[in-house]
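Hey, resending since the last one bounced:
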Amino acid sequence: MALACAAAMAMAAGAARATTSVSVFGLKAPEEVAGFRLNDSTNFERAKPGEGYGLDYSQPGWKLDVFVYDLKRSAIPDDAKSAIVRAEFERSREDVFLAAPRGIYTQVYLRRNFTIEDPQKRTRFQCAAFHLTRDGAKPQDGYLCVTSWHNKFIKLRMTTLSGKDNESVARRHVAAWIPVLWSGANARAEKANAKPARAQQRRRPAPRPVCPQGYICR
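The C-alpha cells again:
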C-alpha cells in the first residue's frame, strides 16, 4: 500500500512539473520531442542580458537542457560550421571541463567530437560526448551540442547513467530537433524564394522582332 501511494505521488509530481508549450525568441518549444517532455522554462535574460532562456526536458533515465541565447551578439550566421558557431561550441565544451574544478564532478573527460547532419547532409549540430563521474555516484555519459538558429545560439546538454548504447540514443534525440528548428523555416524560405522568380518570369518583356536586312522596320 505504501509503495502504491509513493508511486501515485511520484506520478502526480511528474504531472505537476509538466508545462505547456512556451515560446522564446520566436522558437515555440514543443511539449514533447522524441520522448522528452518539457517540464519548465527559465528566463536568464532578465538578470543577465545575452544569456537567453533555458528549457528543462526529461524522460525516464535522461535529462535534457536546451538553451537559447545570443551572448549579446548582433549577428550569428545560420551555419553550424561557421567560425562563430564553432567558437561557441569550443567555449561551451570548456565549460564542461570546468565542472570538475567547480566540484560538480570529480572527473570529466572527452570521449569524442561528432556532428549531426540533416537528410540533405548539411551539418546542423557540433557535438561532444563526455564521461562524467561523481564521488559516491554511478558514472554518467554527457552530451553537448551547439548550433545556430534565427540569429541565436541553441545548446543542447544531455546526461544519463553510463551505458554502451547511449551515444546512438543521444544522436537520435539531437537529430529529432532538426525538424523542430528548420522544417517550417525551410518551407517558408523556399516559398518566399519561389515567388520573385515567378513574378520575374511574368514581367519578362516579349522579344523584339529582328528587322531583316534591306527592310524598314518600326
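Residues 177-203 form the longest helix (27 residues).

Sorry for the duplicate.
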